[in-house]
Structures are given as structure tokens and as C-alpha cells.
């Protein structure tokens, strides 16, 4: 049985998201949920998602339909943005479990989407390792982000299998 589950964000999650703690070394690579949730809710192409263990929000990210061409592999890609796990819940496998559930979640909510893409800073070794372990591949595309080069990784939803 899953330890965590993915849910579309609602305003009832705000207080827990606002209480998020991120380690200093991770703040350079991601952002606090409440710093992006308002903008996401105002944009019809952005969908905030919470990662919950029981009733507790342990993680957060945004799914962005129609992202910039530099951040997608095809016209029907969705971009994973602002992925984070609250510091109090890190190193418990929740990030990996959420990433493993993500393809089915995306297919259930956005059946037209053919790939999940993300941009990861080349210096963010822990995140890159997580993404590679959960089936993402390097597209060999890169973009410049606020603190340096970011690699574009992708998960092809048209493949039959998800790594375990």
C-alpha cells in the first residue's frame, strides 16, 4: 500500500503548504509552495498538486500544460515545476513514491498528455538521481536557469512500463 498519494491542490492545503520547511541548500533549486501557488491558480495551464501522507501534506509541485518550447519534448508535454518535499519528511522515500505515481496521475487528469518533462539544475545531483531512478531520461536539451544550466529530462507516457 502506498505511503503517499497525489491530490490536486485546494485552499484547504494552504496552511500546511505555508508551514513547509526547505533546507538552505535546496532553496536554490526549488521554491516554497506558497510562493508559486497563487500564480498557478490564476493560470489556467498550471495545476498545483500536493503529496499527502494520510491527512498531512508532505510535498508539493506544479504541473504546467503548454510550457515554453524550451521545456518540452513535444506539443503535448506537461512540465513538472517547483517539486519539493518538506524537510521534516525527507529521506523517507516520499519523493520517489510520488514520482512513481506521477505518470498514472497525469494520465488520469490529462489524458491528452504524452510526456512529462522537467528542468533540473546540473548541480542538483540528488534530484537528478531521483529522476533517473524513476524513469526520466536526459533529452540532451538544456536551458539557462536563474542559477545556471538546467537539463531537460522527460518521461514518455506512451511507454508501457514504469521502473520499480
Structural class from helices and strands?
alpha+beta
Share of residues in strands: 25-35%
Mean pLDDT over the full residue set: 89
Rg, nearest Å: 15 Å
Write down the secondary-structure element order: EHHHEEEHEHEE
What form results from the Cα inertia axes?
globular
Number of helices: 5
Q: Strand order of the main beta sheet, please?
A: 1-2-3-4-5-7-6
Number of strands: 7
Helicity range: 25-40%
Query: Sheet bearing the most strands, described?
Result: 7 strands, mixed
Low-pLDDT runs of 5+ residues are none
Distance between the termini: 14 Å
InterPro entries: Acyl_CoA_acyltransferase, GNAT_dom
Protein name: GCN5 family acetyltransferase
Domain N-acetyltransferase: 8-162
